[in-house]
Amino acid sequence: MKTDFIIIGGGVTGLSAAIRLSEAGADVILLEAGDYPSHKVCGEFLSPEALPLLDKWEIAPAAKVTTLKLILPKRQWSAALPQAAATMPRYCLDDALAQHAKKNSVQIKTCAKVERIDIPKSEGQHFNVFLTTGEQYTSSTLLVSTGRLMNSLTGQKMPKFRYIGAKAHFEGIAMSDELAMHLIPGAYFGMAPIGANRVNIAGLITCSQEEARHPRATLSAFLERHRASSFVKTLERGHCLFNDWMVGPVPEFGIRRQHLWPNTFFLGDAAGVIPPATGNGLAMGLTSGILAADYALKGQPQTYRKHWKAIYAPRISKGILLHRLFLARRLPGAIPILCQTFPFLYDYVFRATRG
Prior knowledge:
Radius of gyration: 20 Å
Number of strands: 19
Structural class: alpha/beta
Oligomer: single chain
Strand content: 25-35%
Order of helices and strands: EHEEHEEHEEEEEHEEEEHHHEEEEEHHHH
Low-confidence stretches: none
Largest sheet: 9 strands, mixed
């Protein structure tokens, strides 16, 4: 099947790119290895810059967030967000984006696992994408928004895993319109309301390579070690709505190495990943999908790469600094003192990791 654009990866970035391309009248095929709706390990926090896009596409967030609270072993600190934000479960968000894309005539192929890509040797030739089912899709332009695919197709070594990511939905934990960040030595977890008296809890735990091979056991050991912490005591007041925590190993964050294929646009996790400490992952995914689509319509992959780096590389680098500060063994205790003494620091960090 021949089309104007093939998008591999149907997360929020791939879906936002598909919607933008379809709004311009392009013929788009999106290939997603999973299905909709589905849960994903994610903080489910929507930064302010994402909200106008969702409003345009008539997608309503689940809950409003106006306050940030930092909870450390010996102190707490809270402040109003510089701009109101929101939350939305990925189970709902990705599905809503997919439904909107379908209304715009995007062809979405779920449970579509890519087996091989024939790369054109020069401009003007076409990509041929083959699925494990034997189906074939052809296009002159390829948008790649999944990082895992590149390792399998290029034979690159899998990155070393540095963290365990974990997520679950709870009920019975009273929260207002706030994002509560629990900073625990070697880990951090965010809690935020997601509507219907439910709370999303997601975070990262530093780990060794051996611990990364056993993420569930690593999480259990972590919770046991910190059973006296405010975080674990809060969990005990609620009830997990999943059969168990969603867990998985996570590599280091940063800008990803890209292959210089003709007329190819790398976006989402294939381009770079910002640490969850910033709360800007979903918004960055949505806005970068729009950016990639705009340059794909112009056929300008090199200009896109330069523009992407100019916009997102500074945010990622500052996000990594914040991420490391949150994970430090002793420094996090100074955060509330610094924010109280120098209020402009909080506002600066918030804006420096966003648009």
